[in-house]
Amino acid sequence: MKRAIYYSLDKKSVSDNDYLLKKFPEIVKITFNPAFNSQQCINLEKELFTKAKHNLLLEIFLSIAVSEAQGVDELYLSISKEKLNNFVKDSTEFLNVLKRIVYSSTKNKLKIHVLNEEDSVEKVTISEENNITSVLLKNNVKTVVVYSGGLDCTVAAHSLQSQEIPFELSFIDYGQNNLIEEKLCLEKQSSQLGISKKNSIKVINCLKNFYYQMNDSIDLINGEKITIKNSEAEYVPSRNILLIIITALNFDLSKELQIITGSHEDDKNSPDNSIEFYFLLNRLFKSTRIMDNITVNPMLYSIGGKKDIVDLGNKLGVNFSWTWTCHNKSQNKNKLVPCLECNDCLVRQEAFFSNDLIDPFEKALDFNQKYGNIRNIIKNEFRFENDNFEDMTFEELNIDSLKFIYIVTIIENEYNFEFDMSEIVKFEECLISNFIDSAIKSIEINFLQNKK
Ligand SMILES: [Zn+2]
């Protein structure tokens, strides 16, 4: 049994601490520091520290994320009664729901205790939520989508637009592996949705250094590939709740706020995606003084699972080429090419297949194979040692027109097509990567013409 105690940012001491430290001398101490100078505790950058100081729920969930990452079984929160009562309307309700949501939405089924709490809070009753399957969507309140560039939240955004519900996007850089791919999708989708960067897209990055110190999930560590075998390691401690709270704290909470997420029925890998989690979270917000205007709505739960979401997205005309589902980085640096090996890739493939649709990524994969093959032909023919030759021009590589024609002929023979030379007017100035791109384009056009 691993125990931890979290010392609140509030300096007021809680009398039970000493008793606890004597009883469990091996207890792990968790504290937060506002600067990057301490080896002993978790450092929060200024923006996050200030937010946590003014919002007890954020503070508590940061300590829960740390506990999850450290494999703690029981966490004691040292928070003064005064601080708790300043933040919540009904402390019994708040603590009841908090315990339940933490237990059900954390990887280790973390149990929490609040020092100085009253005995009655041990009794948890949540039976009334069991039969509810969706939250009512409101169309006249401030609405924000927690947006990751993934397929689900993209379909949710398009669905809101089709219902003429205005919304903003909240994109969070928490140090994820595939940030570049996700940001590219954010850019493409927001322009398709007609959402302007200036007013309606918030990019938040104050959690990045926090998660960097966790070093827990492989989603946060560059280099290691996520496959079906290690898919449980993609889980990031308390990510969903922290993304929701951080998103909320960027809005004026004196007015009603509706937060939309892309969770749905097939989200079974993370415990913080379940419908129970969302109902408890809404109840938790309602029991506070300053977050009681927030409703979190996983609106896709009322639609179903991945298959139904792909079907809806297809009907809404979503451009799936710009939705990144894969847990790994793109297989091609010039184009989005998923791994098709991780759990999320397989679920996505199955969803397109069962709808009789072709995922644009199937084409991307084919592109990637051709790209790699043509790249190898060029590399081998000219015996390039340098691996970055794609970023150079023919001229820089000393390839003259004769050598150029020679390489074009080899590629034409390999793929049995005729190169559209109008694509490349001045071949000397052409980057090798652009040349490969146009070669593939010509191969595809040729293939379609032959089919006719
Ligand atoms: Zn993948």
From TrEMBL:
Species assigned in the record: Enterococcus alishanensis
InterPro entries: PP-bd_ACP, QueC
Key word Zinc present: yes
Keywords assigned: ATP-binding, Ligase, Metal-binding, Nucleotide-binding, Zinc
Protein name: 7-cyano-7-deazaguanine synthase
Enzyme Commission numbers on file: 6.3.4.20
Pathway, per record: Purine metabolism
Alphabetized GO MF terms: ligase activity
Top-level lineage group: Bacteria
Residue span, Carrier domain: 374-425
